[in-house]
Amino acid sequence: LEKQIIERKINIMKEEGIEFRTGVNVGKDITAAELLKDFDRVILCCGASNPRDIKAEGRDAKGIYFAVDFLKSTTKALLNGGLTDKNHISAKGKNVMVIGGGDTGNDCVGTSVRHGAKSVLQLEMMPKLPDTRTENNPWPQWPMVCKTDYGQEEAIGVFGHDPRVYQTTVKEFLKDKKGNLKGAVLVKLSPEKDPKSGRTIMKPVEGSEYKVETELVLIAAGFLGSESYLTKAFGVEVDGRTNIATADGTHQTNVKNVFAAGDVRRGQSLVVWAIREGRDVAREVDKSLMEYTNL
User: Fold this and answer.
1) Can you tell me the distance from the alpha carbon of 36 to that of 142, in angstroms, rounded to the nearest whole number?
2) 213 and 109 share a domain?
3) Torsion angle of alpha carbons 278, 250, 36, 240, nearest 10°?
4) Which one in 106, 171, 224, 267 has a CA-CA gap of 20 to 30 Å to 68?
5) Which residues constitute the domain of residue 158?
6) Can you list the alpha helix ranges (DSSP code H) found in the chain?
7) pLDDT for 213-239, tens place per residue?
8) What pLDDT was estimated at residue 36?
9) How many CB atoms lie within 10 A of CB 32?
């Protein structure tokens, strides 16, 4: 969503009497115990922001960041003074490698281009989807076709080619003597069916390794669910995907008076689902407080 839309909605909520309290505003961190003491009900809507890491040799090199950290630092610097902040993670003049497709990876590509990156390479583990529908993918099924988003379009416009490389992952990150990232060893992947699960897995192709130069790596390999510090603080149970578990057909967690909704409950999803779950949990909490609801 555009930032001005979010700010507009926040201002409407403030006018309705909703208070936004953070550790910064009140001068101290607010503990889970304090929230449970001060409020009759607590709803956890904190997103599924636990990032999936890349476990490869040299991962400790300086210059490797999670995608959201990179994007967040850019947004803060932009809002605070038009990217004049020297503290943000900058892609200017660097060979950038984005690991992962999807919306977040695309945002990293577009943002790196706008920073003035020297080059941008985007790795995708899976094979390239067809440019047009295949016979086994007719309407009204979801079109499983290759889509080029704004980030890739801007990279094509600047560098003259699509930044995406398919069926490829990182085998090793290369460091200089000071521990700074200077390159990576990539390896091609081949799809194979796992005889036990029947699922398709991507296996490295022996002898397909090659090196690339890169001084900035952005990991956009998806998310693993809710942050562990949050679930531990409230003592809520999680499911097999580390999302907060709720009783069937409800938003109630295993902890009395604590509810969960949105990505923190269902995993990374869409804004429309967040809106729907927000309405559903509001109705559920209203009924638990009043014993009826008109919502």
Assistant:
1) 43
2) yes
3) -100
4) 171
5) 64-219
6) 3-15, 23-26, 32-38, 67-81, 102-115, 150-159, 228-234, 263-266, 271-290
7) 999 999 999 888 899 999 999 999 999
8) 94
9) 17
